[in-house]
Structure formats: C-alpha cells, structure tokens
Q: What sequence folds into this?
C-alpha cells in the first residue's frame, strides 16, 4: 500500500537492459533468454534497474523492464492477465490489494518449492507477517520486497512539557497522555490519525487486533460486531472525537493527517512506518527535530500492529519462462540486493537487515527499535483479505466514521457486520 506520493505517477517507461543472453536456464527447453518484468514506479525499482547489468552478466539473461505508475499498472494487469497473457514473466503486485484476486483467478504461479530450493537465499529469513500475506491457501505466490508497520509517532517536546517521561506503552496510557497534552496546549490536538471511511481501515486495523478483534473468523463469518471489535471502534472514534483536532474532518487520509502532525498541531499520531521521512525531514516538517517513534501501544490483547508487504514480486502463471523469472526474483530479493535497498531507505521483510547496524544506519534509531519490537506480535494484513478489497473497506470503515461523529457505535457495527457477512457470502458464490 505504498502511497502515491512515494511511488509517484508517470508514463510507462520500457527499458530493455543488458547483455546478450548466452544460456536461458530453466526446465523449459523453449524458455526465452529474455525475462520480461513489469514493475511499479518506486525507489526499489530504480535501485534494481541500476543493478541489472550485474544480474545479466552473472546469468547471461537479458531483462526487459516495463515500469508503470500505480494506476497504469493495475489497468495493464486487469487487461492482460484476464486475457491470459504470456507476455509478462515477473510482476510487481500489492499482496493485500490484489493478491487474493490474482491467486483466486490463477494469475500467480506457485513458488512454494522454489522458495525452499536455495538455503543461501533463505526463505526462513523473511518475517512471518509478510510471508503470510504472500501465501494463499498454503501456497507461496509472491516474495515480499517492501514492507511497512504501524508505529506511534510522537512529539518529545510536548511529552516533556507535560511531565511524561516515556511514550505510552498501552492504549489506555495513549488516551490519558493525549488528553493531558491537549488540555495543556490550546490549539494542539492530543492525537490525530486517518478518519476517512476507507483510508482509516488500514490504520484502525492495529487497534482492532490489539483489542482482540478481527474482520472475520477465517471460516467466512464476519466478526466486525464482536465485543472486541466494537470496543476497538469505540476507542478509535472517541480518541479522535475527544482528543483530536477541533472540528475534525471525517475524510482524512494520510496526507491530511500527516500535515496536521507535521505542522505542530498534534502530539501523537499512529501511521505507517514507511512514511516517517515526512515527519523527520525539516523541509516537510516544522517539528522534525522533536519527532520520535515508539512501538504501537498495547491493547487488551497486547500490541498487535500490522506488518505488511506493500509490494511483492510474483511469477505469471501463464509465463513459459518461469524458471528464468524465478532467477530474477531470487537475485532481486537476495540478501545482498535487499541490503542495498534497505540502506537506500526501502524497508525490507528480511529479518537479517533489521539486525544489521549498517543496514539501518540511515533510519532513526527509535523507529528501528519500534519496528523490531512490533514485529513480535504483528499481523500480516491491514484490511479484510478478500477479492473486492475496495468494497470491503467501505463496509467495515463505516463504524469508524460513525464513532468519530458520536453515533451509536454498537448499532453501526451490527449494521456493518450484516453487510460484510452478505459480502463474504457473495464472494463464495
């Protein structure tokens, strides 16, 4: 779910890069010596493109890259994959947005055996949450390349002024600290976060899990009106309603919420770790020198932030060049390439890079500590895992808005539960 400000939008760029092939490899005698790779506009893509000559020299293969903006990428996949194209070998996709749909439609090749075939590449080095997100019905269908986790952003200066020695370790402490700071600082909110019906779903998910709730029970039964889920909706809504900005809007996504925080108008903010530079860059943030990070606060069920792969690499099931496609993925996601990307500011799903001092030297120390702490109880999805994700988010996000605006949260959760159950039933048909 990397945001558009991160991945950008641009026209398609197609680049055939590399040396002449001298050996295709793979089990298919007719396998092409050219691996056709479709990638999103992203700093990860830019870094990999720069390193491609190394891969091509090692393998004798040639890599043809098609690079697209997020919307263009989705449009191309919708058209080409639905038509059964074999013109794509490797594809960069969003596991939690289209992964379930792609797997259900048979677009993604089963990579389970390939991930086990190279101990040096080391599939066991990948974090559990991202692995779960790229696994469908027991089959590995993708390799995570970019991750993010929900963490707590906060203002050190406001905590010090309020006599608060440490950032809140629990959600109860978060609410109490936010209330205290708001009362002491007129015009400054104690807390801010996303409020839009659909955008808020992903960030609300960590609150939901930490209260012991979930979107469904795994057997096709909606659980958005359980006592745990209802309590989470009430908490999130009241935290923004009571301790949030005055006259808070109910259509904020991350840019609007981040702007409030970086303009110095809020003390606490829960958001994706991948967006941290917006808060720490003096060119973007008025409070850059006072921003700090902490693990997501624990609720009744503990601290359970999402830890997800916003992007992954998969192999087109219709490709006749799958062995060579895997060679590219194996190289692009190797420990060496991952280390270089991590150092360049692209957070990885590999455990080893988060334990490597050199790999995290460009990240705020407390952000690394927060993410390492959060990974222990993390959940590998931040929205319902369904095929029609956008529709599902609209349904389960409504109680968030209703809670913020002071409506009957229990009634709203019951209504959403009935609607989401119908949605789940329809998806089975």
A:
């Amino acid at each position: 779910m990397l945001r558009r400000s991160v991945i950008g939008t641009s026209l398609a760029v197609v680049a055939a890069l590399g040396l002449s092939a001298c050996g295709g490899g793979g089990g298919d005698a007719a396998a092409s010596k050219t691996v056709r790779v479709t990638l999103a506009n992203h700093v990860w893509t830019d870094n990999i493109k720069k390193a491609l000559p190394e891969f091509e020299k090692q393998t004798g293969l040639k890599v043809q890259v098609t690079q697209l903006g997020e919307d263009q990428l989705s449009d191309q996949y919708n058209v080409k994959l639905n038509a059964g194209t074999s013109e794509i070998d490797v594809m960069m996709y969003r596991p939690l947005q289209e992964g379930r749909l792609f797997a259900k439609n048979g677009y993604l090749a089963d990579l389970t055996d390939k991930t086990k075939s190279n101990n040096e590449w080391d599939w066991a080095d990948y974090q559990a949450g991202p692995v779960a997100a790229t696994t469908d019905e027991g089959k590995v269908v993708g390799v995570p390349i970019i991750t993010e986790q929900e963490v707590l952003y906060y203002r050190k200066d406001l905590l010090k002024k309020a006599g608060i020695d440490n950032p809140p370790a629990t959600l109860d402490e978060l609410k109490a600290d936010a209330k205290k700071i708001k009362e002491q600082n007129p015009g400054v909110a104690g807390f801010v976060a996303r409020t839009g019906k659909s955008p808020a779903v992903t960030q609300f998910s960590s609150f939901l899990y930490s209260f012991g709730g979930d979107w469904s029970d795994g057997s096709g039964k909606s659980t958005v009106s359980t006592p745990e889920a209802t309590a989470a909706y009430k908490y999130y809504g009241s935290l923004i309603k009571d301790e949030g900005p005055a006259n808070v809007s109910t259509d904020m996504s991350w840019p609007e919420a981040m702007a409030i925080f970086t303009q110095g108008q809020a003390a606490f903010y829960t958001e994706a770790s991948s967006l941290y530079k917006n808060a720490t860059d003096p060119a973007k943030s008025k409070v850059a020198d006072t921003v700090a990070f902490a693990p997501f606060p624990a609720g009744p069920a503990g601290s359970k932030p999402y830890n997800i792969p916003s992007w992954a690499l998969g192999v087109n099931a219709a490709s006749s060049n799958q062995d060579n496609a895997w060679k590219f993925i194996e190289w692009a996601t190797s420990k060496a390439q991952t280390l270089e990307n991590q150092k360049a500011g692209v957070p990885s799903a590999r455990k080893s890079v988060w334990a490597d001092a050199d790999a995290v030297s460009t990240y705020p120390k407390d952000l690394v500590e927060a993410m390492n702490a959060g990974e222990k109880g993390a959940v590998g999805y931040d929205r319902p895992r369904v095929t029609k994700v956008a529709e599902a988010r609209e349904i389960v996000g409504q109680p968030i808005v209703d809670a913020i605006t002071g409506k009957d949260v229990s009634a709203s959760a019951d209504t959403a539960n009935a609607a989401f159950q119908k949605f789940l039933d329809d998806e089975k048909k």
Summary: The longest helix spans residues 409-428. Confidence is low (pLDDT under 50) at residues 1-29. The two ends are 28 Å apart (CA to CA).
